[in-house]
Description:
Elements: E1 4-9, H1 16-27, E2 32-34, E3 37-39, E4 41-45, E5 61-64, H2 71-82, E6 87-89, H3 92-97, H4 100-109, E7 117-120, H5 131-138, H6 144-151, E8 156-160, E9 170-172, H7 175-185, E10 190-194, E11 201-208, E12 211-217, E13 227-228, H8 236-253, E14 257-265, E15 268-273, H9 283-286, H10 290-306, H11 317-324, H12 331-346, H13 348-358, H14 362-369, H15 373-386, H16 392-409
Amino acid sequence: MPSKKLGLLIGAEEEDWPSALEAMYRRHDPVATVNGEPLHVQVERVRVHPFNLRADTSYDAVVDRLGHWQLNPREWLKKAALYNGVYLLNNPFTFQSMEKHSAYVAMMRLGLHVPKTWLIPLKTYPERPGYQETASRYYDWFDLPGLVGHEFAYPLYMKPFDGGGWRGVSRIDNEWELMRAYDASGQTMMHLQAALEGFDVFVRALGIGPQIRPMHYDPSQPLHMRYIIDQDFLSPEKQQEIIRITKVINAFFRWEINSCEAILKDGLMQPIDYANACPDMHLFSLNVNFPWAVKSLLAWTSFCLATDRQMRLDMNTHDYFAIADDAERSYDEKLIAYEALADAYFETARFEEFRAQQLGWLDEAMWEFVQTPEFDAILQGIVRAKFPPHEHEQFFAHYRGIMRYWVEQNAKG
């Protein structure tokens, strides 16, 4: 098998997981054997520049962490998928058209326990010809405090309909805060969503291909303290449920790297945020979960390259909706049926066989890599990037201690 080329389309703030992934591919070349031939993977960071729409490309697959935020790379990704057949992680088409609003609606249709959510019109209309006149003629006046009083209870949340990394999210405790947040929203269209107070567990699950990692999460803490080191925070049944939910969401929308935030309250697993084009992948925050993310990304990208996995530009929503509309099935039965569709999309059985047969070295290799000076340099780099100089030594020790704990927990025997 000839060499394959994996592109990393990343922002300036991302250095830790790309460096770790590059190192793991470099340290284990070839990464696998396919049909008796070695699979060599060249990893390269993608540059952004003008491009001919008919131009060839040397990339076989691209991990995208930038296209959701910047137009030029997004349009190159679309061209690469449509014209060149490049496999993309993630899908720029569905992430652009199926923002958080569409994601809420679709998963409500599937019967997931998404909290009550309303969309409200813009506070300030754009200064474009015809917009004001159309709004005056056809937009109904509404009483926002009255709507909240009738449909919600305080507290609730106001947040942008299309998401954006906690951008513009406000917790609303009274009418004054409601109107202040709405006034401040300007030309950003907003959702109102019921708050889930007194919950049992807040979980964030990271999905990379069919691999799902549920993590105990506390959004009230500083970013570097939000992931709680706790493996037994969910019952086996609820852990399986959040794994299924995350996998189904990702397969439904053709998202290969995504996270799902959900709240467990009164026995219901309620997804609240699950359209994340650039989910958290950083050592700075993931701490003991970071090696899992790197291993899983290497495993999934290797599988996609080794099998010449083809980009799916279409969606099979009707298959999911047919299950959703089956009144004879329970919630659990529907979720199991949805997961079967998701596993078919991800080729989960084939992937698991590939990982077992071709990547049996991966766990031990990651365990060894975490103990190298090269990994420690990555750790020091992220500390220097995220903390002021007078805190560097403190957090060098902090993260080294966390990774020593991970090494001890994952030592064989």
